[in-house]
Amino acid sequence: MNDLALLGLLQLADSAIPVGSAAHSFGLETLAEDHVLTPANLEAFLRDYLDEAGSMEAIFVRRAWNAVSAGELGELSAELSARKPARESREASLALGRRLAGLVNGWLPQAGIATDLHYSVAFGRACAVAGVSRYAAVLAYLQQSVTAMVSSCQRLMPLGQSAASRILWNLQGSIAHVGRTVLTLDEEVQCFNPLPELASMRHGTLETRLFIS
């Protein structure tokens, strides 16, 4: 991966990229409101996320990176929609993917990334177009995902910056393990992660909300 590809990856994976991710908690707000998710168990929760939903999303990053046609990308996105039972999380993922594709198409007009893709699919394709290696794309997506979740939790519970950064540091081994596994996994995608999905479905019933989802 050359210098320009590395710089491109840093921008794609930057938490400040204007795709609207800060507006979504993907069910974390409900879990925090119910006191199911706390600073004490957040690290363990994120490890479980990486093993299940994180791994599934990362597989779609890898598959999108490998895709050879717009039709294949559309099929991947449709498959991922079917694997997201919560409408709120599904629509949030599509919204982020639409904005990311729009940004990358503006940066690289030749990219031609469809704007109806899930975020992980759009991210994988954007990395391939930018010359980012497949493994780096997977790792960056996982790191960005847990960073966004920790950032959401800092607004939802008494989680300071030092504690948040320690959690992210401690998760590096899990991220690397999932990344290596995802690159070689050929079997059917499996994910059992009902708690965040159910929490996302219930998000609209909260009396007060900081996040859209």
Mean pLDDT: 93
Q: What's the domain count? A: 1
The secondary-structure element order is HHHHHHHHHH
User: How would a textbook summarize the main sheet?
Assistant: none
Number of helices: 10
Uncertain ranges = none
Percentage of residues in DSSP E strands: under 5%
Q: What is the CATH domain class? A: Mainly Alpha
CATH topology: Urease accessory protein UreF
Round the Cα radius of gyration to an integer and report it: 16 Å
Short description:
Helices cover 66% and strands 0% of the residues. It has helices spanning 3-12, 28-33, 42-66, 70-82, 87-107, 119-129, 134-156, 161-170, 172-184, 194-202.
List keywords for this structure.
mainly alpha, Urease accessory protein UreF, 213 residues
Notes on the protein architecture:
The chain has 213 residues and is mainly α. It has a single domain (3-12, 22-199), classed as Urease accessory protein UreF (Orthogonal Bundle). 66% of the residues lie in helices and 0% in strands. The protein contains ten helices and no strands. The protein has helices at 3-12, 28-33, 42-66, 70-82, 87-107, 119-129, 134-156, 161-170, 172-184, 194-202. Helix 3 (42-66) crosses helix 6 and helix 6 crosses helix 7 (134-156). It is globular, with a radius of gyration of 16 Å. The termini are far apart. The mean pLDDT is 93.
Helix-strand blueprint:
Blueprint: H1 3-12, H2 28-33, H3 42-66, H4 70-82, H5 87-107, H6 119-129, H7 134-156, H8 161-170, H9 172-184, H10 194-202
